[in-house]
Amino acid sequence: MSVLRLLLKLLVLLSVLAVSVLLIQYWLATKEHVFNKEDIAKLAKQYAGQDHEQAFSKVVVELRKRYPGHILPDEDLQWVFVNAGGWMGSMCLLHASLTEYLLLFGTAVDTGGHSGRYWAEISDTVISGTFRQWKEGTTKSEVYYPGDFIVHSVGEATSVQWSAGTWMVEYGRGFIPSTLGFALADTLFSTQDFVTMFYTVRVYVKALMLETATMLTEAGIF
Fold first, then answer.
1. How confident is the model at residue 10 (pLDDT cuts 50, 70, 90)?
2. Range of the domain at 194
3. How buried is residue 94: exposed, middle or buried, by Cβ count under 10 Å (0-12/13-18/19+)?
């Protein structure tokens, strides 16, 4: 009897989980988004090949003009280390919500590892350096250069490698909280750099607060 009760509880749990996944999937498919990958790539490509710091400054200025209220102010912009999948890079978060993020990313040293497998589509436009990607199920890798545009599809896994001095503009769309496990796992179980974890969580919360305030303002609530 206890086994039957346990099986029923498991069945209910799996049913709730399945319904939750379907509801989130429907929400993601019907929700209106702030950005789209084509516009972000087109903007970033204008500055590909330039000094990455100058290019990033121009990208941020242009984004604030196009998407007022959706890009973090200068005082909240911070370069934060990212350790994930065996590689190490640095990111500067510009925007984040439950369904989108926009950031600057790169590395000053050669690094590589596993891409992660996400419930989100991630696209990158290379500003400087080179990015190498080896897709699952293939025996050859591809190299991308400044101005190139790369899309990492939902559920896809690849081997990734950045040369020193590679910098890019990255846009993600999907269920963003699902990506945090991969983003923070190496910090939790390997580097134990909890200061970096604090910085990561803090800037994500700031971005969520900004997006919430903008949404309420646009709705006329305040």
1. confident
2. 35-219
3. buried
